[in-house]
Amino acid sequence: MSCHDITVAVQTLRRGGLVAFPTETVYGLGADATNPAAVARIFAVKGRPPTNPLIIHVADESTARRFARRWPAAAAKLARAFWPGPLTIIVPRRRSIVGAATAGLPTAGFRCPDHPLALEMLRRFGKPVAAPSANRSTRVSPTTAQHVREELGDAVDFILDGGPCRVGIESTVLDLSGERPLILRPGAVTPNQIRQLIGPVRVVRHTAAAGGPARSPGQQRRHYAPAAAACRFSSVDALRALRWCREHADRRCAVLVLASAAQFAAGMPPRHRLVQMPPTPGQYARRLYGTLRQLDRDNTEVILIEMPPRDDQWLAVRDRLLRATVTLSALEKRMGGRTC
Questions:
Q1: pLDDT in tens, 121-152
Q2: At what angle do helices 73-82 and 191-198 cross, to 10 degrees?
Q3: Distance between CA 224 and CA 221 in Å, rounded?
Q4: 257 φ, ψ to 5°?
Q5: Is 204 exposed, middle or buried (0-12, 13-18, 19+ CB in 10 A)?
Q6: I need a labelling partner for 210 at 20 to 30 A (CA). Which of 68, 104, 114, 163 fits?
Q7: With pLDDT > 90 as the criterion, what percentage of the chain qualifies?
């Protein structure tokens, strides 16, 4: 990717166009956050409900301060520690940020991405860029430029190709607009890392009400979901999941496992695919969306996913899987057949 490509990206933003650009988390679908028509195109291309706010990407903390109505001391401390990086900070916004970009809320989530191409684009553009992930609404986020091309095609005016995303899932969203800090979406920056800097913080497990504005991206009941039917199971239910596979041996299924690989390897039907996922949260997150997209390209009908442990380090991955999947019982009811 050359300086010319960044120039084209900046020119596209200035004329109100859409640019897909790389970050360390996922690829974003960006537009000028101060241009109402440009922001409206994001929602149209994604098929995104207007009640779902966008993240406002900035080149640095000083830009965030210019467009924030209030920038508390906690925001300054966190920005110094984690920016550029996978942390979005929600604070009261100025009216220069298009209201549609924040679902009409008086707040905005600001983030400084940790990717050299994104940062150079933002510096040269000189204004904030509103950007959700560059995919159709509720579907799997893209972690390569090719994912964007496959899903959005010519609906995007320009794609800035920065290679694969190294984090692989969306940023942590921290709300500092109220009396107490709230994590509205978990990400690579963990609750413990935030607590060490600013004290107590609460993780809010929230699903946005139908028709009402979400407080943060990633709060829809169904999100990050592959085209294939996807269900989750705990490690203690591995034998039950294997039994389900045997009862549906004629279907094109894949099973993503962590600790239960040996149990499945011994009894998987020939048509089914066993995928051993990485054992650490960071490696798992980096691989997750690409794996789901590849299984969709392979016309997989059903994906069963073994859930990771319930601990702070796995919080973000578990959040994505809980929103992308249904329970095994729910899948059985949907597809018919004998209940496990």
A1: 999 999 999 999 999 999 999 999 999 999 99
A2: 130
A3: 10
A4: -120, 160
A5: middle
A6: 68
A7: 85
* Residue that the structure tokens 């210019």 belong to: 66
Burial of 246 (0-12, 13-18, 19+ CB in 10 A): exposed
Residue 162 tokens read as 């920065």
Q: pLDDT for 29-55, tens place per residue?
A: 999 999 999 999 999 999 999 999 999
Under a CB-based contact definition with an 8 Å cutoff, are residues 160 and 167 in contact?
no
Kindly list the structural domains of the chain, giving each domain's residue range(s) and its CATH number in brackets, ordered by start: 3-203 (3.90.870.10), 229-335 (3.40.50)
Print the SS3 string covering the chain: CCHHHHHHHHHHHHCCCCEEECCCCCCEEEEECCCHHHHHHHHHHHCCCCCCCCEEECCCHHHHHHHECCCCHHHHHHHHHHCCCCEEEEEEECCCCCHHHHCCCCEEEEECCCCHHHHHHHHHHCCCEEECECCCCCECCCCCHHHHHHHHHHHCCEECCCCCCCCCCCCEEEECCCCCCEEEECCCCCHHHHHHHHCCCEECCCCCCCCCCCCCCCCCCCCCECCCEEEEECHHHHHHHHHHHHHCCCCCEEEEECCCHHHHHCCCCCCCEEEECCCCHHHHHHHHHHHHHHHHHCCCCEEEEECCCCCHHHHHHHHHHHHHCEEHHHHHHHHCCCCC
Q: Which residue has the tokens 């299984």?
A: 295
Residue scoring higher pLDDT (194 or 335): 194
Non-local (6+) Cβ contacts of 2 within 8 A are none
Strands 107-111 vs 55-57: parallel, antiparallel or unpaired: parallel
Please tell me whether the overall predicted TM-score, pTM, comes out greater than 0.90 for this model: yes
Give the span between the Cα atoms of 170 and 63, in whole angstroms. Answer: 21
Structure tokens at 337: 């057949």
